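Checklist before submission:
- one chain only
- standard amino acids only
- sequence pasted in full

Submission:
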Amino acid sequence: MRVVMFGYQTWGHRTLQALLDSEHDVVLVVTHPKSEHAYEKIWSDSVADLAEEHGVPVLIRNRPDDEELFSRLKEADPDIIVANNWRTWIPPRIFGLPRHGTLNVHDSLLPKYAGFSPLIWALINGESEVGVTAHMMNDELDAGDIVRQEAVPVGPTDTATDLFHKTVDLIAPVTIGALDLIASGRTEFTKQDRSLASFFHKRSTEDIRIDWSWPAEDLERLVRAQSDPYPSAFTFHRGKRLEVLAAVVSQGRYGGTPGRVFYREGDGVVIVAGADARTGRNHGLAITRVRTEDGRELPATEYFTSMGGYLTSHP
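Returned file contents:
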């Protein structure tokens, strides 16, 4: 099939590479300009560079809503558009233009975790598996019929970075497998159960601020979700920002006020956690490694020279 590809960052790069390695003909690529947004500088392999290396024409757009782009798409005469990590709305006259419509590739197990940062949100929420879905695009974001979907398990110590590497390797088989089904003449695919749908927003600074009223189990997953190269989860100690780089759920149960710097346990320092921590039934969060406001990275047992005092969400 003649394919136009819409994509950005490493997800788009992997998709384009899979298409270039396939029997399909990539006739045009549309990608976003480079961004200084913290999350868009991560996994930032260039779609434009890869296309140009293979002699594929490239258009750079924030939004696909201008007449020049529409004319170029009509001239390209695609059988299908394939999109992955396209960050803005694609209007119906674009996604409905090709003979077979538009196939969108999304790094979640739709219908759950539509929208942005699905791996991070899924890890924070304790999902047992994540994956990649190829679905037909329609008027509603990430809501079209599922053509192909593959899952991988979430391990007990997996970080968001681990999940990225697990799922990015699914892009090629999911994308090309879906295209093969479409090329074979299949037109009926799996409807999404919209009663199970969830939609998540982009991550921001507010989303990585530690709230000590959360249970320790949730905070431990937040720390893993915000692992390098993502911005680290943070709290404040004595009015200064403190990034939490590594932590585990405590072995013991610790009662008191959430945020209290309480007890050395193994290689960590336990912080009281959970809205009902006063009951003494909760585990705490044992912080093992931190980064200070001036960039020093050190074990928590070296940073916390004495017990007592509080970690807080704000200075």
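Reviewer check: DSSP finds nine helices and 16 strands in the chain.
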